[in-house]
Specification:
about 140 residues, mainly alpha, about 80% helix, flat
């Protein structure tokens, strides 16, 4: 029985050493990127061309999100629906669930002004893209 334990310990030590040796070079390569590699991935502009290209899809996504958030209690993901769920949890006496849902509600209400700001910013970007001939 003692021999089995020693054999198992020796096999475990060899496996651990092999794993450490094989992981060493991979970590060394990723720790210090070469100057040539970082020069290849450096941005060559502000990405305006790509932003103008994606503009219609981005506007559609923001509009969809705002429509959903501002929907009534029958719309999944709406603020009104989450408010209803908070009220139902409160009435049922589920204080932990109410707290959790209330925190989600606070976050969701905070999304609306952020998305409205992005929507306004995108209108300005759209005007710029049109003036540049990129749209």
């Amino acid at each position: 029985m003692l021999a089995n334990r020693r054999t198992a310990a020796a096999i475990g030590a060899v496996a651990l050493a092999g794993a450490l040796l094989s992981a060493g070079p991979a970590q060394a390569d990723s720790a210090a990127p070469s100057p040539a590699a970082s020069a290849k991935s450096a941005p060559k502009g502000d990405g305006a061309k790509a932003i103008c290209k994606r503009l219609p899809k981005t506007e559609a996504r923001i509009n969809t999100a705002l429509t959903r958030l501002n929907g009534d209690a029958t719309v999944a993901g709406s603020i009104a629906r989450l408010e209803q769920r908070v009220t139902e949890a409160k009435n049922a006496g589920h204080t932990e669930v109410q707290t959790y849902l209330n925190d989600r509600l606070t976050f969701r209400k905070g999304l609306v002004p952020t998305l409205q700001k992005r929507q306004a910013d995108l209108k300005a970007v759209s005007t710029w893209c049109t003036a540049q001939g990129s749209k």
